[in-house]
Prior knowledge:
Blueprint: E1 2-6, H1 8-17, E2 22-27, H2 33-45, E3 48-51, H3 54-60, E4 68-73, E5 86-93, H4 99-112, E6 114-120, H5 129-134, E7 143-147, H6 150-159, E8 163-164, E9 183-184
Parallel strand pairs: 2-3, 5-6, 5-9, 6-7, 8-9
Antiparallel strand pairs: 1-4, 2-4
Helix pairs in contact: 1-2
Amino acid sequence: MIELVFGFHPVREALRRRPESVERVLLAARDGKRRQEIEGLCSRRGVRVGTSSPDELSRLVSGVHNGFVAEVSIGGEAAQESSATDQYLAVLLEDIQDPRNLGALLRVCEGAGVGRVLLRDRGSAPLSATVAKASAGASEHVSVERIPNSANAIRSLKEAGYWVYGADGAGESVWETDLSGKVVI
């Protein structure tokens, strides 16, 4: 199955992290550093490049493409290898239905060094081009694992030595909490 990933950052990160899945890149962007960078990545990784008008790209995708669209082959939602610095910091998300919110959360997690994101299957948005765009490419760097049941996942994490933290408006400040070691939020 082919999915269209669009926008400079999502296309660049797909080319960096999983070039074997990028079938073709379509460019409508004018000459410039960003276009040169994408063309260079495509050349080094053997990815075909085509040229389209901005209007043609707008007909293909339902979002702001900035002149960059990639045709990416997908075979399910395999977890990405994380480039995060803290492999023991995990975040569990439930019922994130809006793909833009999911993308924003993945961007925050990547920036905070989260090693893995656990996303409950039922009730959550699928990983998609909209998620990739909203994450500004961070979705390529964070390991996302789909889980069928949050309670079972938390139980397994506790058995593996993780401390589980949740938010409580009346609780201790996050800035005063020791979040070192194996932690799931």
